[in-house]
């Protein structure tokens, strides 16, 4: 079902929360500070509950081809709970997050007690542990702690102070894979942060021959004059790509009346744009040692860039898709971005957009990345809220359906 949200109200991004195996177990929904939560969850005439619609859109994913719903961690202002203005939410689908304010512990305890009485699970966000927080921690299911500026000794000390309270510990704002490993060792159970967007660089590593061949195919796909026979010759060199493309074109996503057995026929039926996207998707998901969330994030970014380009009526929106997708390829390959750009055959305009945010493609990439990260202050005052919100929501659904089709 398609629906539109008020452009003055809805600016929502989602940030994954992982377990120790880097599997997504929930998403934190980050909404613009000027957005009124009650308005954001206001009744939609096309839905029984717009809170259900929003939560379904932002927390349903394809995991190994199976569509799953994961809970939403939703930040709630303390005053909204205490003055009774918090909208009714489906308690099984949300975990409410409250920040412990300095000097207002009695108010916070009252809010937490009310939330628990209403059947919600609670995450308490604290800056640092002090003994006077103990009554609040006792009420919470989860305690969230920002670990970004902590040394290894500080991190272990904080965990020792919190573990006796028998709450689940969530480490937030993790900046690197190495910091994630420290948090796991210290005793945290849940994790969030930008660590997935930073490669664990292996010095001297080069892009493999198979990966280069796939990138060459993607580059060929961008040429307007390319013929299906030429693409077939390139595709059949890679058995994995051949198998997956045929499986996708014969999947339920296309509902064909007869089975397609020829790559050339698949190219004709899918069209160049679709083959380009699927070939890129296969390149992204063919990294068995990488979390599925990383592939999903790059798919969302690529599709969002493309939809924004279409909305702004830019020529060749497929190049915007490639720019968004390739902007994180270095993380997949465990090399730095500059090395990736030197080794992977991409157009100079795409490389400049990724490296320096040059040109229209660079501008769209920069703004789309800011939106998906919830860095609202980096967005210009006159940007098209309706277009960006719609592009982001549609990209979430497109990525879910695409990843499901990969496993059908």
UniProtKB/TrEMBL annotation:
Protein name as annotated: Putative signal transduction protein
Coiled-coil blocks: none
Gene3D superfamilies: Hypothetical protein af1432
Species of origin: Marinobacterium lacunae
InterPro entries xref list: dGMP_Pdiesterase_EAL/HD-GYP, EAL_sf, HDOD, RNase_Y/CdgJ
Entries under Pfam families matching the protein: HDOD
Domain HDOD: 207-392
């Amino acid at each position: 079902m398609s629906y539109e949200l008020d452009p003055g109200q809805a600016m929502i991004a989602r940030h994954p929360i992982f377990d120790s195996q880097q599997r997504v177990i929930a998403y934190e929904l980050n909404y613009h500070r000027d957005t009124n939560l009650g308005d954001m969850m206001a009744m939609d005439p096309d839905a029984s509950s717009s809170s259900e619609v929003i939560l379904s859109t932002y927390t349903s994913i394809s995991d190994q081809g199976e569509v799953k719903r994961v809970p939403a961690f939703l930040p709630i202002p303390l005053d909204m709970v205490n003055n009774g203005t918090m909208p009714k939410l489906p308690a099984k689908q949300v975990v409410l997050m409250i920040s412990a304010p300095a000097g207002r512990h009695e108010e916070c305890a009252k809010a937490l007690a009310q939330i628990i009485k209403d059947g919600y699970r609670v995450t308490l966000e604290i800056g640092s542990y002090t003994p006077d927080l103990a009554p609040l921690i006792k009420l919470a299911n989860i305690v969230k702690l920002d670990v970004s500026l902590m040394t290894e000794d500080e991190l272990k000390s904080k965990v020792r102070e919190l573990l006796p309270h028998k709450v689940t510990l969530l480490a937030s704002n993790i900046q690197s894979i190495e910091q994630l490993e420290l948090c796991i060792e210290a005793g945290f159970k849940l994790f969030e942060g930008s660590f997935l967007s930073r490669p664990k660089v292996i010095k001297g590593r080069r892009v493999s021959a198979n990966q280069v061949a796939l990138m060459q195919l993607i580059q060929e796909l961008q040429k307007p004059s390319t013929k299906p026979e030429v693409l077939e010759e390139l595709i059949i060199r890679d058995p994995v790509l051949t198998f997956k493309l045929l499986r996708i074109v014969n999947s339920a996503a296309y509902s064909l009346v007869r089975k397609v057995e020829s790559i050339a026929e698949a190219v004709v039926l899918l069209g160049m744009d679709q083959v380009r996207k699927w070939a890129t998707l296969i390149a992204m998901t063919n990294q068995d040692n990488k979390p599925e969330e990383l592939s999903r994030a790059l798919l969302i970014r690529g599709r969002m860039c493309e939809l924004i380009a279409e909305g702004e009526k830019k020529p060749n929106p497929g190049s915007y898709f490639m720019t968004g997708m390739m902007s994180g390829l270095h993380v997949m390959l465990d090399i730095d971005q500059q090395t990736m750009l030197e080794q992977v055959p991409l157009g100079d305009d795409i490389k400049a957009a990724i490296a320096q945010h040059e040109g229209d493609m660079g501008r769209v990439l920069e703004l789309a990345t800011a939106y998906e990260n919830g860095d609202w202050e980096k967005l210009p005052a006159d940007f098209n809220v309706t277009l960006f919100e719609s592009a982001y929501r549609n990209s979430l659904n497109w990525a879910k359906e695409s990843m499901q089709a990969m496993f059908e």
